[in-house]
């Protein structure tokens, strides 16, 4: 009945990330320092070579995400190494975007996302209006992990009737603005700034209108795929730990793994894990298309819908199989379960993905 999940994105990046993850997991409850991302050179993985980066593909990002997820290590890799570089790379004619990409690859800048990538997310974009030659924005930014090394914040705004506005604002410029700090379901410290007719600093606007919309769509594709890869890795790792626990623990003189009802639960989880893992691999083929379009978006919406739907009952069953121990954060399986629950609503919940698929089909 033993089980060990296979590594979906094997390679040198995966090996090095796994060593880092094992080291950081062994230090729990001490939280990993976000500067590890820059120290390991991960921030340049998706940055094009022409801008000083590695010029890697999604599989390279996924190998890091997978390794960290398997050990329940929380680092803002998906936003800083995946979404932000993708958004900047989707703005080839913007000198500021190119400069920031190069700075990220060199470790001179750390940019955190503080806005929604699509209309399906619960947080609304900041309201933007053009006042003379300057932009003014109002509203609350999305929750963001603004760690000490963060130098810039990627704001997502919306000009009524004209589409999104993207701005990369130096973090120092937000000093003095009302801020709300709190912890997420995963016990991660995040912040949200409240802005009231706040003037965007000069030369911080990256793009607006259709160009900004396309950049956000590119970032959304990477976000959905990366969150799914994270969830699938959590599924495999938590199932492996649950089976090991059932084989070790005993009740009424026999191992828990001998009880048929628990064996049925483990078998069901294995089937769900294999379906999600194979759907992830199939969906990534469309992400690697030279020109992603509606078919790519549909494949990723299907992936996000299915993995998000399965994540919640999967996490609940993992906790149940561990009994009372499954409720303690000291157990890696419990942290993996909470991570799956949080991922289920990240960058669009299953209902939002389902609604978009319906709109595509009926359009």
UniProtKB/TrEMBL annotation:
Residues covered by the Acyl-CoA dehydrogenase/oxidase C-terminal domain: 226-348
GO molecular function, one term: acyl-CoA dehydrogenase activity
Name of the top EC class for this enzyme: oxidoreductase
Keywords for the protein's UniProt record, in alphabetical order: FAD, Flavoprotein, Oxidoreductase
Ranges where the Acyl-CoA dehydrogenase/oxidase N-terminal domain occurs: 23-77
InterPro entries referenced in this protein's UniProt entry, alphabetically: AcylCo_DH-like_C (IPR036250), AcylCo_DH/oxidase_C (IPR009075), AcylCoA_DH/ox_N (IPR013786), AcylCoA_DH/ox_N_sf (IPR037069), AcylCoA_DH/oxidase_NM_dom_sf (IPR009100)
EC number, UniProt record: 1.3.99.-
A Pfam match: Acyl-CoA_dh_N
Highest taxon, organism lineage: Bacteria
CC cofactor: FAD
Flavoprotein as UniProt keyword: yes
Transmembrane segments: none
Family to which this protein belongs: Belongs to the acyl-CoA dehydrogenase family.
Protein name listed in UniProt: Acyl-CoA dehydrogenase
Lineage: Bacteria, Pseudomonadati, Pseudomonadota, Betaproteobacteria, Burkholderiales
């Amino acid at each position: 009945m033993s089980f060990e999940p296979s590594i979906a994105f094997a390679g040198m990046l995966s090996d090095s990330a796994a060593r880092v993850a094992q080291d950081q997991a062994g230090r729990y409850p001490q939280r990993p320092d976000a500067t590890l991302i820059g120290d390991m050179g991960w921030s340049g993985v998706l940055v094009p070579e022409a801008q000083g980066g590695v010029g890697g593909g999604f599989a390279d990002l996924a190998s890091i995400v997978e390794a960290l997820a398997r050990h329940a290590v929380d680092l803002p890799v998906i936003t800083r190494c995946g979404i932000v570089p993708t958004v900047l790379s989707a703005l080839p004619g913007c000198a500021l975007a190119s400069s920031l990409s190069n700075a990220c690859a060199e470790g001179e800048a750390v940019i955190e996302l503080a806005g929604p990538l699509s209309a399906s997310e619960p947080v609304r974009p900041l309201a933007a209006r053009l006042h003379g030659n300057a932009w003014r924005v109002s509203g609350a930014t999305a929750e963001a992990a603004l760690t000490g090394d963060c130098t810039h914040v990627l704001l997502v705004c919306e000009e009524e009737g004209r589409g999104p506005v993207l701005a990369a604002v130096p973090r120092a410029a937000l000093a003095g603005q009302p801020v709300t700090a709190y912890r997420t379901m995963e016990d991660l410290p995040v912040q949200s700034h409240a802005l009231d007719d706040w003037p965007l600093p000069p030369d911080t606007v990256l793009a607006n209108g259709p160009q900004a919309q396309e950049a956000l769509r590119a970032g959304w594709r990477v976000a959905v795929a990366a969150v799914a890869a994270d969830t699938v890795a959590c599924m495999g790792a938590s199932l492996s730990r649950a089976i090991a626990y059932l084989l070790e623990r005993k009740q009424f003189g026999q191992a828990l793994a001998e009880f048929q009802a628990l064996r049925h639960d483990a078998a069901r989880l294995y089937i769900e894990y294999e379906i999600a893992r194979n759907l992830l691999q199939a969906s990534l083929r469309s992400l690697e298309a030279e020109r992603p379009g509606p078919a790519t978006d549909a494949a990723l919406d299907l992936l996000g819908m299915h993995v998000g739907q399965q994540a919640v009952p999967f996490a609940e069953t993992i906790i149940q199989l561990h009994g009372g121990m499954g409720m303690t954060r000291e157990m890696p399986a419990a942290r993996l379960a909470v991570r799956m629950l949080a991922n289920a609503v990240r960058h669009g919940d299953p209902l939002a993905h389902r609604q978009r698929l319906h709109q595509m089909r009926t359009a």
